[in-house]
């Protein structure tokens, strides 16, 4: 077994032992179920809580409502929990000094970062697929999905944005060697993106568009072509952050 | 009464998996809390209450922040 896969296996075992696999599966299935559930139950709840005699003309929920819930819950709750779960990937090892032994035995430093990134990548894919497939199945079961456009492409945008945030967290986590450092960097990055988004012109390239665009994509207000530049910018910065992490870790004193 | 039952039946495909996940997670966390009596902060009673009475978020907080290390060191 090559050192890279060996280290990946170690990461995997660690994540299972620290209940990350369990929590990821549980939380993201729950989010997946909650999306269509919230969409379906909201009109019924409103009717029950309104005072007697109030006439409410709430439209029947549609597939669009279910997907709007997806774009509300998944990036907010899901992404936040995911970042929280995986924000200690590097700092834990740096704080405890567990990497020193492996590195002195000849493990390449870039292996550490790329394997950790691959693990986070795999987990994020798992989390995304779980939520997406569950929401998709429920929505297809209850509603007619032909009214929503670009379901897969829109969801893919959120997936890419999550990947970018994870990479930023990994960089911050390695750079500051503390769990809070990684979280802080991520929060700062998100706030920066939101500040940039104040300027309307930035919508053509701001990666945040990958998060705010998809709901409009479903209704056809945003065409997939407009997502290309934000996507490329997101992928570019992802690579920059990944390379930055590797280069920084190569020189880091342990 | 009849309409309530209809309503319940309509939402059953949602309620069953959510309830299963919720109880499963709560029971799993309780077992874990009792078998690993070392926590980063707080005591056993506090964690049991959190895990049992705060749905989803309680066990999540326990596993992320409250769980002690495997070797039993208390930080």
Describe this structure in words.
- The complex is a heterodimer of chains A (254) and B (75).
- With 254 residues, chain A is mostly helical.
- Helix content of chain A is 76%, strand content 0%.
- Chain A has one domain.
- Chain A contains eleven helices and no strands.
- The model of chain A has no long low-confidence stretch (mean pLDDT 89).
- Chain B is mainly alpha-helical and 75 residues long.
- Chain B has one domain.
- In chain B, helix 1 runs antiparallel to helix 2 and helix 2 packs antiparallel against helix 3.
- The longest helix of chain B has 34 residues.
- Chain B is elongated.
- Chains A and B meet through helix 2 and helix 3 of A and helix 1 and helix 3 of B.
Alpha-carbon distance between the two ends of chain B? 54 Å
> Helix- and strand-based class of chain A?
mainly alpha
Q: How many beta-strand segments of chain B?
A: 0
Radius of gyration of chain B: 16 Å
Number of separate helices of chain B: 3
Give the topology string of chain A: H per helix, E per strand.
HHHHHHHHHHH
- Domain unit count of chain B: 1
- Give the strand tally of chain A: 0
**Into which percent range does the helicity of residues of chain B fall?**
over 70%
What secondary-structure arrangement, pairings included, does this model have?
The complex is a heterodimer of chains A (254) and B (75).
Chain A (H helix, E strand, L loop, with lengths): L2 H15 L2 H30 L13 H23 L3 H8 L2 H6 L4 H34 L8 H26 L2 H18 L12 H4 L1 H6 L8 H24 L3
Chain B lengths: L1 H34 L8 H10 L3 H10 L9
Helix pairs in contact in B: 1-2, 2-3
Which keywords apply here?
heterodimer; A: 254 residues; mainly alpha; 76% helix; B: 75 residues; 3 helices; 72% helix; elongated
In short:
The complex is a heterodimer of chains A (254) and B (75). Chain A has helices at residues 3-17, 20-49, 63-85, 89-96, 99-104, 109-142, 151-176, 179-196, 209-212, 214-219, 228-251. By secondary structure, chain A is mainly α.
């Amino acid at each position: 077994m090559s050192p890279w896969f060996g280290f990946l296996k170690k990461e995997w075992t660690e994540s299972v032992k620290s209940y990350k696999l369990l929590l990821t599966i549980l939380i993201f299935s729950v989010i997946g179920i909650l999306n269509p559930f919230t969409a379906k139950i909201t009109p019924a709840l409103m009717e029950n809580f309104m005072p007697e005699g109030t006439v409410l003309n709430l439209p029947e929920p549609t597939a669009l409502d279910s997907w709007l819930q997806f774009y509300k819950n998944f990036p907010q709750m899901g992404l936040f929990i995911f970042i929280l779960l995986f924000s200690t990937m590097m700092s834990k090892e740096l704080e405890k000094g567990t990497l020193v032994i492996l590195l002195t035995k000849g493990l390449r430093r870039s292996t550490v970062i790329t394997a950790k990134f691959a693990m986070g990548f795999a987990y994020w894919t798992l989390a995304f697929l779980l939520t997406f497939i569950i929401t998709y199945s429920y929505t297809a079961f209850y509603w007619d999905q032909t009214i929503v456009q670009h379901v897969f492409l829109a969801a893919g945008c959120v997936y890419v944005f999550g990947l970018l945030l994870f990479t930023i967290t990994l960089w911050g986590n390695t750079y500051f060697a503390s769990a809070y450092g990684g979280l802080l960097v991520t929060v700062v990055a998100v706030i920066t993106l939101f500040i940039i988004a104040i300027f309307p012109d930035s919508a053509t390239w701001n990666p945040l568009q990958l998060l705010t665009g998809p709901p409009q994509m479903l209704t056809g207000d945003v065409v997939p072509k407009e997502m290309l530049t934000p996507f490329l910018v997101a992928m570019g910065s992802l690579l920059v952050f990944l390379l930055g992490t590797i280069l920084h870790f190569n020189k880091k004193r342990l | 009464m009849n309409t309530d039952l209809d309503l319940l039946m309509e939402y059953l495909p949602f309620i069953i998996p959510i309830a299963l996940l919720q109880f499963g997670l709560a029971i799993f966390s309780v077992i874990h809390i009792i078998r690993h009596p070392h926590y980063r902060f707080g005591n056993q009673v506090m964690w049991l209450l959190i895990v049992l009475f705060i749905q989803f978020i309680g066990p999540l907080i326990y596993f992320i922040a409250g769980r002690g290390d495997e070797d039993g060191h208390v930080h």
